[in-house]
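Dear colleagues,

As part of the handover before I leave the project, I'm documenting each prediction I ran so the next person doesn't have to rerun anything. This entry is a single chain, and its sequence is reproduced below.
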Amino acid sequence: MTITAPYGAWQSPIDATAVARAGRRLGAPVLAEDGAVWWSEGRPSEGGRVVLMRRAPDGETEEVTPAGVNVRSRVHEYGGGSWTLTGTDRVLFVDFADQRLYSQRLGEKPVALTPKPDVPAALRYADCRLTPDGQAAICVRERHGEGEAVNEIVAIPLDGFGEEPVVLAGGRDFYSFPRLSPDGTQLAWTCWEHPNMPWDATELWLAPLADPGAARRLAGGEAESIIQPEWDAEGRLHFVSDRDGWWNLYRVGTEDEIEQLSAEEAELGHPQWLFGGSTYAFLDDGAIACIRCERGVERLGVLDPGAGRVRDLGLPFTSFGFPSLSVAGTRVAFVAASPEHETAVLVHDTASGETEIVRTASDEPLDPAYASIPRAIEFPTGAGDEVAHAFFYPPTNPEFDAPAGELPPLIVQSHGGPTSHVTPALDPEFLFWTSRGVGVVDVNYRGSSGFGRAYREKLRGTWGIVDTEDCVAAALHLAATGEADGERLAIRGGSAGGYATLCALVFHDEFAAGASYYGVADTESLARDTHKFESRYLDGLIGPYPERADLYRERSPINFVERLRAPVILFQGLEDEVVPPNQAEAMVAALAKNGVPHAYLAFAGEQHGFRRAETEIRCLEAELYFYGRILGFEPADELEPVEIDCLPPA
């Protein structure tokens, strides 16, 4: 027997605390030569601290980095590539506190390899690789001082303990993927210039390590995005390029000729928001393990020599997060999830077909009976002659039904980036909503990755317009098909998704409420006050600044807050360097001045993207309370009230 209760009022065992407990952030698994598995683990319960973990060949799991160490780089502010395994018993890692590079052997204390800068965290490191002779590490360094930060590729001697690194490549705005040939004689890397982002236009360079000044460009330039150069065991350089409209795999020949290895109308690459990602790795039989993304669904496959197409391995996983593959022999390590499987560190043997779970995101798995299985949807958008994509998660709770004739509230989720994409997965945060009777639609708006370069570039010059249109269109599509209550539509998102949220609430009238997490309210302010990596991003998304300042003003919700009539709740980290708190604070002041119901929760110690369990819990509960008051349902949970300013008496 089920209980009949209104949508939104269903009782659920998936509370905010359960969501936070399921939020271990697993990443970058590495298979060591001795059979051990290493990975990074972000812990909301410890303030978001990232630790390195190791499962020994005998199955014993241990925490490698000592208490207090937070393995996280701040190069490009987003970081990534913050550690690398050297041999079987030593790691190199960046500590978040001072951004220095450290060496640590198992069971020993870390030792700093890089000099202490005069200004704390002014020298930052990422994406390290060890030279084959084990004498040095090659990595990206970012120097902060007066003016714009300087990015370089440097060599760091491992026995110098504070010796000044040697600059191998400099003079370009950005560098990534420094990769050494197996014999240690050749160094490959990618680089790019303002105003490009790495998914717009990058170049692949190669130089003798003994004479970096003799570097030559192998590929890339305008309208070509190159990522992840890697050498195979035979010393052949591979890379991913979207020169044919899709991120496919290529190989450099003996005379620098370029051979295309895959011909997929799907993506074998991923937008380079973080350092150190890998979407392919070499198996010992000459085949290449690949993560293939088609229409937002990611699968693990194998590219056999000469095949040209990726062979799907038939595994159930559909979401690989920021992908990172590691191979040893026939074994492949990765982090993945699906709508029915929570995120986990996994090892798959391509020879035996067996898959092993090494570590899950939670020690207390969610009850699969409450899993909402998403459905891929396509819907008309814009002027009606274009199509956008999303995954719809319907309300699901085995213990409850809604009254006959009632339609559920719907939350439209707008992803961040905006050059990113969403995948179908068992997302505890989505289940928090769907198990209470609230539907969720996760939108891959035009401009998202995972659908080819042409789809990705639909956001060029149109940020704040087409992404918002697609979020609106997704909501109206589900309302028109009878799967959502058109009078109870809400929109939420973080960062760029927060911007789409505010744009939807200001420039459109379809939503009854919204939630902005560290969202952009003033694009002009963002163009003037953000970090180097994204300082020219808006040139492509909106237009050159200050030449087209008029467009920035037209696209800034803060300038049109008088149009806003739908209540909104805003969440902001007070140490956010990407979207500073003054954006949210200006929005709150304008909302108060215009009498629009709103709530504002700010969190000390949080940056761009919340990492602390207590923050995640408070935000989810506050958002549920807010929607209940605004959309007219009574949550079954006991919730701490949220002060909603300008809300008329009930």
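The two ends are 34 Å apart (CA to CA). Residues 240 and 248 are 5 Å apart (CA to CA).

All the best with the project,
I.
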